[in-house]
Amino acid sequence: MTAPVLHVSGRVMVSADEIRDDMWVVDGKITFEPPPASVEVETVRGYVIPGMVDAHCHIGLESHGAVDQDRALEHALVERDAGALLIRDAGSPADTRWLQDRDDLPRIIRAGRHIARTKRYIPNFAHEVEPEALVDQVRTEARAGDGWVKLVGDWIDRDRGDLGTCWPVEVLTAAITAAHAEGARVTAHCFGEQSLRDFAAAGVDCIEHATGLVPDTVETFAAQRIAIVPTLVNIDNFPTYAEAGRRKFPSYAAHMLDLHRRRYDTINAAHEAGVAIYCGTDAGGQLPHGLVAHEVLELSRTRMGPAGALAAATWAARAWLGWAGLDEGAEADFLVYLDDPLRDLRILTRPHRTVLRGRLVR
Hints:
The chain is of the alpha/beta class. It has helices at residues 69-82, 131-144, 169-181, 193-202, 215-224, 232-235, 238-245, 250-261, 263-273, 292-300, 305-313, 315-320, and strands spanning 5-13, 19-26, 29-31, 41-50, 52-62, 65-66, 84-89, 107-110, 115-117, 127-129, 148-152, 154-157, 162-165, 185-190, 206-209, 227-229, 283-285, 334-337, 353-356, 359-360.
């Protein structure tokens, strides 16, 4: 029996500037042309936005490392029910390709496994290599992922007692060039200031966290169109990380507290310079899943405002990752709310209905 056509009525937010009253889902695709009167129609009413994007998420990863398939499935379901219908999985030691075969789960764009310097990252998370092996490992992960490679750009250097860069610039440049040759973009975990200069010089595409942006790198990122995914819900834990390291590494602790203190100013400067900013939570590893709406709220506290923050999690983020939003002929992935989320972004935590691949799944 053919599934009924879905009629969505209310305020359909096609973009930040375009609102429609009605939309239909026919054979899993969006259309703005009403079907013939004889067609069976199921109607849903409310405020409609594209499925949200968590552009920094780790399905299948927890604090100790990879989890089993049942636990990874729980992660994906929590993300879906929170409204994250498109996920850029920014590194995981678990092979989550099998999740991509499930039509009731978010779409996942995988970055393969993190690549880190030996003993310079969280145990059991990354492939740990020395600089001479970086290019080959990047090629391997570019082929294993879905168009992204994730590097760890800086971490605490115990000899320095503070954040330290992980890779020589010339090695980074060769590695990023190799990823691009494989058709993959490169993103990197970077907290501190110098790693951002090095990665920009090497031609990186995106930076995660980017707390160390300062005037010269803000200008460079804007000029080179390097995107950032701030993960503010994770940065809020910097004081905890600082306190844990204060006794042994006081310089590191002070640095982390300073990065935390100026986090909103950092994003304000990037936004005003025209740096592309997208929504990501860093869920998995140290944080629970299902925080995408909370990250939108955090971004809205900057000069991006509510509309900019919502765009960073919907229209803009989907376009950046190569996925359509509420466009004619697009696959139907969207959320319906009973109230207008732009009037109060807290509403984003309570999707009324969820449509994924053209089906009501919640």
